[in-house]
Amino acid sequence: MTEPDRIRCEEVVAHLLEFLDGEIDIGRRERIEQHLAECRGCYSRAEFERVLRQRLRTLDDASPPDSLRRRLKSLLDAF
Amino acid sequence: MDQRATTSWQRAPPAGGRPPCSAEDAVLRTFFCAAVEALTDRLYGTALRFTRNPAAAEDLVAETVAKAWMHLPQLEDRVCFEKWIFRILANTFFSQCRHAREDPVDPCDGDDAGFSIFDRLHQPFLLWWGNPEQELIHKLLCEDIDHALAALPDCYRAVVIPVDLLGYSYAEVAEMLAVPVGTVRSRLNRARAQLQRALWNQALAAGLVHGTPAKEDAHD
User: Fold this and answer.
1) Residues B37, B53 contacting (CB under 8 angstroms)
2) Which of B65, B99, B133 is the last residue in one of the domains?
3) Per-residue pLDDT tens digits for B67-102
4) What domain range includes position B44?
5) CA distance linking residue B167 with residue A58, whole number of Å
6) Measured between CB atoms, does B192 come within 8 Å of chain A?
């Protein structure tokens, strides 16, 4: 069986965010996955980006002002 | 109080064109009210991040809720309600921007050089003993991140919020903004670099890290 083309760290870094977004073609995705399984530096970079992304996804919600709650209540009551 | 949302609702037909007092409508209304109530904090938080203005965020949420009710019969699967109403919120914001000629899709042609906190902090020899780059992210307060988000230009927030906070695909954002997918991709890369640059400078100011400030308009 032929070993798949290796991918270099520079190429992984260039496409890492698209990879983490799931916005990359399957061939490149598999090569990046293989690279991350073998390269500690790139794996650490990917983990850092995942952690940052997780913080962004879990930012605290803002507390809506009472005026908005009253406004929504009157809207919903009218429905 | 902004009357736009109330007015748009008053013009809205009963859900699905059915009589407003049918049992089915009562179930629909109960579902809608509960879903909106559960999501109000997140809707307002996202609206505030889009608009950076409490009054505008309030208007945006009210208009979103009114539109969502009006179009509720078009929602085929209620499991998708959350993603659906946040898409209405984003679309409404972009529509308001276009109407006000504050188009968030104005080109950002500057050469926004890449910046990575990882490159600043990662120390390979600490691999098994510490992880300063991840520790920094955990030390940042939500307000630090919100401040960095708010500092982004409109055209960058217009891609970062839908993709990084709401989980939309590049194609979905491209459709909402009426730009090519490649434009979303390139703006997202610049926006994320700028976001990390702002976070790095805030971390420096807060004494969380040591180093040199990231320049806003230069390669690091």
Assistant:
1) no
2) B99
3) 999 999 888 888 899 999 999 999 999 888 877 766
4) 4-99
5) 12
6) yes
Give the CATH number for residue B182. 1.10.10.10
Q: Is the ipTM of this complex over 0.90?
A: no
Quick check: A79 and B189 CB within 8 A?
A: no
Q: What is the DSSP string of B90-159?
A: HHHHHHHHHHTT--TT----S------HHHHH--GGGTTT--HHHHHHHHS-HHHHHHHHHTS-HHHHHH
CB atoms within 10 A of CB B197: 24
The Cα–Cα gap between B155 and B184 comes to 10
Q: Residue B219 domain-assigned?
A: no
CA-CA distance, B1 to A4, in Å (whole number)? 63
Same domain, B95 and B126: no
- CA-based nearest distance A41→chain B, Å: 7
Using the structure block, give the residue that is written with the tokens 């496409």: A15
- Between chains, do B58 and A40 touch, taking CB under 8 Å as contact? no
Please report, as a single letter, which amino acid is at residue B175: E
pLDDT tens digit sequence for B34-56: 999 999 999 999 999 999 999 99
Phi, psi of A19 (to 5 degrees): -60, -45
